[in-house]
Amino acid sequence: MVLKQLYYTSCEVGLSGYPGFQFNAASRGVAPEVMRRVESFTAYDPPGSLPYNADAAALAACPVNLCFEPAEDTGVLANVVFVGTDYSNRFGNYFAHALVSEDVAADLGEALPIELWGAPIWTASPRTDGAELPELAGPPPRGRLDRRHVAAFLRTHPGRAALPALVSAAARVITGERRTIVLIERDSGAAANWIGAVSYLLPPALARRMSFATYHHRPAYSDLHLVATVPDADVDRGDGAFASFLQFDMPANRSSQVPVEPWAALLAETGVENAAELWAAAAELGGGLPGRSGEWHPLLAAALFRHGHHASGAGPAVTAAAATAARWLGRQAPSLDARTIELIGVGALGVLAGSRPPGTGAALTALAAAAAEAGAAPLATEIEKLAVDIEVDGLLAHEPVKGAGGADAVPLRSPAGRAHATDRCTRALRRCTAEVAVDLLLLAARERLDLDSALLRTAGERVVGPRLLAEPTEATARLARGWPQLRAGVVHHLAAVAAREPDRLVEALTHGLGEALDDDDTRAAPALHEARLIAASRRDPRLRIDMLAEIAVLRASGPESTGTPAVDADLLRRIWPHGSWTPGEALRALEVLDDASLNAPATVAWLNAVLTREWPATAAADGDHLEDLEALCRALEGRSAASRLSDPARATITRMTTVGRRLAAATGPGRQAAVLTAGLDRMPETQRAHHLGKLTDLLNKAPTGDLPEIFASCPAEAVEHYLLDVDTYLRADRAQTDIAGRLFYAVVVLRRNPSRKVRVVATVIEDRLLDRLITWHWQDLRTLQVWIRKLDPAVATDFANWRDLNAAGWLRRTLTRRRLEKEADAPRRAAEKKARAERKAAAEKKAAAAQKAADKKRSGSGGKSGKNGRSGTEAQGKAAAKKRNPR
Question: Is the pLDDT of residue 401 over 60?
């Protein structure tokens, strides 16, 4: 490929054939559409501050526009200078020297387009000896812009901090974001240096795709990627421009808000002179550069350390790159050779050791995995040592490094690493605070370090024991279980506390401390063991009686036993802080305590309290207390402890056991109900609630056919209690069919009983039941009818009639009412019909007798006719018929 040349200016002789702005000369074969594009692309207006009578010095100071625009068909690279006046002395002339080809960037060879800034190839004078320009067969020589020159420019420029954002913005607009970067500089030379810096820091292929102009009078009208201008051009430097464009105003030290890509920050920090080498190394490591810019940073970070970058003078971007390179190395180690892993690992480790940036813990974990993959033992050892130093130093400074411990901790595998960790922890434990000591011990326990036994016992007694007592945690409890020597120190401290402040120790053991100890730890210290058992009873109240029995045995057989009762009021109070047994606990105490403990004054007092307490009806729902109370009374009969009880307590035993015996002797459910409800209004509240609970059980378990007999034996008060118990199941949202059906059956049967008392009971049940049933859904009522029909078809018919009259729609209610009225009136109508039939039969009999008498009389008169020739018998028959039917 070759580069074709074009000159464009205002001249007297050119390709157009007439004076004015035109192509002065061009290489052979440039297409007209390419010429039109060059003409538009190279248009030039000078800064507004340039006067019409500018001298040569002022003209020479005008911005030079080196502009480049790649394209799929023909790319353009042009150098445009302002020359002042034209052949006719008209002000405003400029000269554009353009190079075009299908791929200008490729035809430049290794040079980047911006590197032709100030190149000797450019001319500013039109040709006068012909209109044809030669083609350039090879890459043109570079200008005076190179990496060293740009690096020197950046070192002294006050706006160099904007470079990472400028490079990030360039990558975004080249790869798809349709916005223009506007760069404002004092002159086009400075602008060219900035464009050079961007070109050098971008991937080479991407830099060759970047269109740019070192000067444009109206940058807002340009669609190039990067357009430079000067302050006195037609450029908006207000707030709106920084929002509309990606604008960088270097003289004003102001720029748009652009997210900085980490790879851009890294390259800007390492310098333009090293960028080409880093991009090449990154491509080598990655088998080519990824298409997404978000994937460039790990490769560049790894390439940085692959080529020997060291920690000296590392800035924030290089420091961050060390952690990124370490994580990348941990992921890619299986596909890399050992030498590469070691080079990158050593370089990254040096930076991490010197700066310890955020994420160092995770970075070291990744480095350790990579070192293990490569078999790099020296590197692995140094990683372990650094990880230990970072973690220990962070703990001593009360600033734990995130990721330096726990699941992300570097495992200590090498003997040297473990020895280093043991030494650091030992020295730190001798001079640190208690809080830090716990964390150091956790570190040592995690790595299973072999610490000095005396040091561990002292730490258990002075650090871990007090810490467990003050603020027990799972981690501290786990620590106490780690070393036998440390646990011995913890037990010694807690035993001393148990002797001085037993309640405080029980409270701590209840809320987490107990998880750190077991029976083997505490049995040698009776006070501590007793406190542990009491705490266990508080954590699980079901264990209270068992713990009481164990403590009683412990006290009775212990070396400090004095013959006093093992169970005393203080012990009971500590196990039951709220001060009483339930009947079930008292019953259990009878089973597990020996006679000496049962006859102790404190035990007797607590038994008295259980037996004389008024247990409300609601207590039954909290654990069958009343059933347990009855069982307790039966169990106390005949026991020696009963003789020590108070009179009211013994009265309770007598009352409860007497009723139990009477109930066992009763035959039939009705008599059992009578026993349970006899004198109900005179019973103590506890016994009354117990009896009503038993009545409920009796009703629930009885066959449906026995319900009327049971209800008939109960007072209305007892029936009300049962109805309240089952009311929940009669609500529309529960609709328990079997309960409702049993109650309806009982109502129907009870209604047949002539007793006034029984009818009162039936009314109580009926009122409560029907008030609930009327709220049921129709489908539930139909299901209830089916259930009752299986029990008694006649009762089911009664229920269907009630349902249709009370819960059905208007039409069904009306038809049912008429049907029932008709059925109720049927006997009367039948009686009336019978009476009419009887009267008719009597009348007919009487008429027949009269007829017979008349016939007999006529036959006696000889059959003589009357006045009209009719016989007398005929006349008498007509008279009789008229009498029967007057009409």
Answer: no
Lay out the sheet containing 65-69: strands in order across: 132-133, 20-27, 4-11, 91-101, 75-85, 65-69, 212-213, 226-229, 181-184, 246-249, 254-255
Report d(CA 714, CA 680) in Å as an integer.
10
Question: In the prediction, which pLDDT does 561 show?
Answer: 57
What contacts 417, CB < 8 A, 6 or more positions away?
A: 380, 381, 384, 385, 388
Structure confidence at residue 622 as a pLDDT band (50, 70, 90): very low
| CA atoms of 686 and 655, how far apart (whole Å) | 11
Q: How far is CA 874 from the centre of its chain?
A: 115
Least confident of 405-414, 830-839, 851-860: 405-414
Q: Is 547 helix (H, G, I), strand (E, B) or coil?
A: helix
Dihedral pair phi/psi, residue 99, rounded to 5°: -115, 130
Return the SS3 of 539. Answer: helix
Please give the pLDDT value at position 515: 65
The 10 Å CB-count burial string (b at 16+, else e) for 23-60 is: bbbbbeebeeebbebbbebbebebbeebeeebeeeeee
pLDDT in tens, 590-617: 999 988 888 999 999 999 999 888 766 5
- Residues whose CB is less than 8 angstroms from the CB of residue 561 and which lie 6 or more positions away in sequence, other chains included: 555
Q: Which of 491, 420, 481, 431 is nearest to 455 (CA)?
A: 431
For position 535, what pLDDT does the model report?
86
Confidence at residue 819, expressed as pLDDT on a 0 to 100 scale: 84
Per the document, the length of the chain is: 887
DSSP state of 646: -
The runs of H, that is alpha helices, within 113-234 are 147-156, 163-174, 188-201, 204-207
| Lookup: tokens for 476 | 């501290």
Distances, alpha carbon 754 to alpha carbons 157, 758, 759, in Å:
117, 8, 7
* Nearest C-alpha neighbor of 673 from the set 712, 700, 624, 721: 712
pLDDT of residue 887: 44
Q: Where are the beta strands (DSSP E) in 661-768?
A: none
- 3-state class (DSSP) for residue 247: strand
Of residues 64 and 17, more confidently modeled: 64
| Percentage of the residues of the chain whose pLDDT score is greater than 90 | 49
What does the alpha-carbon distance between residue 765 and residue 805 come to, in Å, rounded to a whole number?
Answer: 19
DSSP H stretches of helix in 515-646: 519-522, 526-539, 544-557, 569-575, 583-592, 595-598, 601-612, 625-636
For residues 10 and 39, is the Cβ–Cβ distance under 8 A? Answer: no
Q: How far is CA 381 from CA 186, 342, 367, 448, in A?
A: 55, 13, 11, 17
Residue 582's Cβ-count burial label (10 Å; 0-12, 13-18, 19+) is buried
Average pLDDT over residues 462-489: 84
Instruction: For residue 510, give Cα distances in angstroms to 148, 469, 807.
Output: 73, 11, 58
Please compute the mean of the pLDDT values over residues 782-787 and round it to a whole number: 92
Which tokens in the block code for residue 215? 């000067």
| Burial (CB count within 10 angstroms: exposed 0-12, middle 13-18, buried 19+), residue 783 | middle
Give residue for tokens 């169990």: 635
Backbone φ and ψ of 436, nearest 5°:
-70, -35
CA distance 17 to 571: 122
pLDDT one-digit tens code per residue, 512-547 = 676 667 777 777 788 888 888 888 888 888 999 999
Triad 697, 701, 704: Cα angle to 5°:
125
Q: Within the chain, how many helices (H) and strands (E) appear?
A: 41, 11
Determine contact, residues 329/349, Cβ cutoff 8 Å. no
pLDDT, tens only, 279-306: 999 999 988 999 888 899 999 999 999 8
How far is Cα of residue 520 from the mean position of the Cα atoms in its chain? 41
